[in-house]
Amino acid sequence: MSMAEFMEMLWPLLVIVGKILLVAVPLMICMAMLTYVERKVIAAMQLRKGPNVVGFWGLLQPFADGLKLLLKETIIPSQASKIVFLMAPMITFMLALLGWAVIPLSEEFVIADINVGILYLFAISSLGVYGIIMAGWASNSKYAFLGAIRSSAQMVSYEVSIGFVIITVLLLVGSLNLGDVVRAQAGGMTHWFAFNILSGQFMLFPMFVVFFISALAETNRHPFDLPEAEAELVSGYNVEYSSMTFALFFLGEYMNMILMSGMTTILFLGGWYAPFDIAPFTYVPGVIWFALKISFVLFVFIWARATLPRYRYDQLMRLGWKIFLPLSLLWVALTAGYVVYVQQPAMAGGGL
Q1: How many CB atoms within 10 Å of residue 232?
Q2: pTM of the full predicted structure?
């Protein structure tokens, strides 16, 4: 085999690796800085300063925390199932990262532009339960196991509602491709599924609200951070973890926050499209608009944590099974009727 033939075979692999690095490296940096931003935003809302010692304005605080966790000793309980114990945080973190394989960052850039991207994304987010179950079981601790059961029940409950919400979007778009979902929202804010209320249509605005609240529960974020449960379960499923194994759970949570914010942006906020389909807004690159929308959704995640009290567990489950599930199921039926009888599906590129 000649060098030219070898390079011709190797080139597609290099392109894929390059795309992966182009997405993964900025994501890792954003994930680290999100911990800093969260502490700063909550501090501002509570009239405190937040991190301000390590580096200029405390910007190096995430890296100091990472170094501290890296240098700590990894303690594995003597009665724990060691292989499963160590695999659990890795699975949690990797699954959150794998979801970005099908997220279109702009019209031109996506790692894998597959026709069933939405199913892939839903499958990846659903598998996150396994990391938590494995952590609770492998720790051989009643506190960790009870925390894992509580967390997995919460995640499974709200995944059902998220699934029905996604179905309503797919019924209107007529495609499982995430790029087609975004292109169906072209034309400014009045065509975005979250804000079609501005154009006099209420088709998906309630589902946008349900999806965002379910995303809070799915990522175990406040006010649905019941797995944390310091009072009764001493931090829940990850109570036996320390050093980098704990850090992987911690970072997996933040990576899931960014992933769910990306899903919200694609499904309801117009993806890479500008809020107004006029100059100078259209001159800004699509990836910048995509990043700004994700940042806004993340800010609301943090805002909810700084503002709302924690739910009781029975309130959490009642909201998921008795309110969100019937509402999302009803909306699937209404949306299907709208598509069949009115014959106005928002096909790719058309918008509502």
Answers
A1: 12
A2: 0.88
